[in-house]
């Protein structure tokens, strides 16, 4: 699969853009574990244009993580075009437009998935961004606003005609948020349109290597995007990549997985500071499949998530690794179904 001249290989698997999750450190670890491409956190066009420091920091790209995309969102074509030009100076491989974020503070203001109720504005934004930069421009969106307005079939063709280089579709409507099951049949129907000829990336409920393989084999997508199943578990890309390539899912050891989590903690603290860095990483610790299925783990889990210093958190992780995980002799609980992308 290629996005413009960027060759992502056969059956590529991407890390989805996620706010407060896909910082440069996490993206790099996911790349090292087998993700073929990564996406930044959401970047507000208005904040970029106003040079808000916390937003401009999101444009940092670490050496070794390419190819990577920076994703922007907003509702004004002019601001989106200006933000795109600012992003281009950071030299990402791809610029992605967010037309899929369902959260109220974004969609409720007419950005993200909110633009599924204003297709003319969505298309105007897309054309403005495509015209503003020389980078390949891609779009991530959903099936429609609700069950009565699943417009993705016609919309996919319209977005392609605006000049985008690839389209990612999350198989839910905005109204569904992250509930119910992703509708991969609706994603597959996009590929049946003979006029649609750009790469199609499917997203939603990819939590296991087997589900990723089925997305390619059963629904014919060109690429697969993994979101929430990767939080606290960047090694999922290693499992998926090895399964797609060899038929066997390769898992890191307990020690390797714990080392990845510790690395995230340290790099988060280095990037921000100790207090806020630990707060940022708690989402990964809370979601990590590494700790699921451990008997009587709840008190230790609470203690881990309440730790306020690196020293105390390291001590708890030492206890978990040495006395619990290695003592159990297990590396990975079987149930990944709670995580959805």
Task: Give a structural overview.
With 341 residues, the protein is of the alpha/beta class. It contains 14 helices and 10 strands. The chain has helices spanning 24-32, 45-49, 53-56, 77-88, 104-107, 119-132, 152-161, 184-191, 209-219, 236-246, 254-271, 274-287, 298-306, 310-328; strands at residues 2-3, 6-7, 13-15, 37-44, 68-73, 94-99, 137-142, 166-170, 200-203, 223-226. The strands form 2 sheets. An 8-stranded parallel barrel has the order 3-4-5-6-7-8-9-10, surrounded by 7 helices. Strands 1-2 form a two-stranded antiparallel ribbon. The protein is globular, with a radius of gyration of 20 Å.
In terms of structural class, how would the helical and strand content be classed?
A: alpha/beta
> Going across the major beta sheet, what is the strand order?
3-4-5-6-7-8-9-10
Task: Show unreliable segments.
Answer: 329-341
Task: Report how far apart the termini are.
Answer: 21 Å
**Secondary-structure element order, N to C:** EEEHEHHEHEHHEHEHEHEHHHHH
Hey, roughly how much beta strand do the residues contain? 5-15%
Radius of gyration: 20 Å
Task: Specify the helix fraction band.
Answer: 40-55%
Mean pLDDT figure: 93
Question: What coarse outline follows from CA principal-axis ratios?
Answer: globular
Characteristic terms for this protein:
341 residues, alpha/beta, eight-stranded parallel beta barrel, two-stranded antiparallel ribbon, 10 strands
Describe how the helices and strands are arranged.
Blueprint: E1 2-3, E2 6-7, E3 13-15, H1 24-32, E4 37-44, H2 45-49, H3 53-56, E5 68-73, H4 77-88, E6 94-99, H5 104-107, H6 119-132, E7 137-142, H7 152-161, E8 166-170, H8 184-191, E9 200-203, H9 209-219, E10 223-226, H10 236-246, H11 254-271, H12 274-287, H13 298-306, H14 310-328
């Amino acid at each position: 699969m290629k996005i413009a001249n960027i060759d992502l290989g056969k059956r590529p698997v991407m890390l989805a853009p996620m706010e407060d999750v896909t910082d440069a450190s996490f993206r790099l670890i996911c790349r090292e574990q087998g993700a073929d491409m990564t996406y930044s956190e959401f970047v507000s066009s208005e904040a970029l244009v106003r040079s808000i420091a916390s937003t401009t920091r999101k444009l940092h790209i670490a050496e070794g993580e390419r190819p990577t995309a920076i994703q922007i969102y907003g509702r004004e074509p002019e601001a989106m075009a200006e933000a795109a030009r600012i992003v281009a100076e950071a030299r990402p491989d791809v610029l992605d437009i967010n037309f899929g974020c369902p959260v109220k503070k974004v969609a409720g203001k007419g950005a993200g998935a909110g633009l599924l109720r204003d297709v003319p504005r969505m298309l105007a934004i897309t054309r403005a961004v495509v015209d503003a930069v020389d980078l390949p421009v891609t779009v991530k969106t959903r099936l429609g606003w609700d069950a009565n307005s699943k417009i993705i079939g016609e919309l996919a063709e319209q977005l392609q005609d605006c000049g985008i280089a690839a389209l990612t579709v999350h198989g839910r409507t905005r109204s569904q948020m992250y509930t119910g099951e992703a509708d991969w049949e609706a994603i597959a129907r996009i590929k049946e349109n003979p006029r649609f000829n750009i790469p199609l990336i499917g997203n939603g409920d990819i939590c296991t290597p087997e589900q990723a393989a089925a997305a390619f084999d059963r629904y014919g997508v060109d690429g697969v995007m993994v979101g929430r199943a990767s939080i606290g578990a960047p090694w999922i890309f290693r499992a998926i990549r090895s399964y797609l390539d060899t038929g066997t899912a390769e898992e890191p050891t307990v020690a390797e997985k714990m080392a990845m989590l510790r690395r995230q903690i340290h790099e988060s603290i280095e990037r921000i500071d100790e207090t806020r860095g630990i707060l940022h990483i708690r989402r990964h610790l809370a979601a990590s499949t590494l700790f699921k299925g451990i008997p009587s783990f709840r008190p230790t889990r609470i203690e881990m998530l309440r730790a306020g210093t690196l020293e105390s958190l390291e001590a708890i992780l030492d206890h978990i690794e040495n006395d619990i995980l290695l003592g159990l002799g297990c590396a990975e609980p079987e149930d990944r179904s709670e995580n959805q992308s």
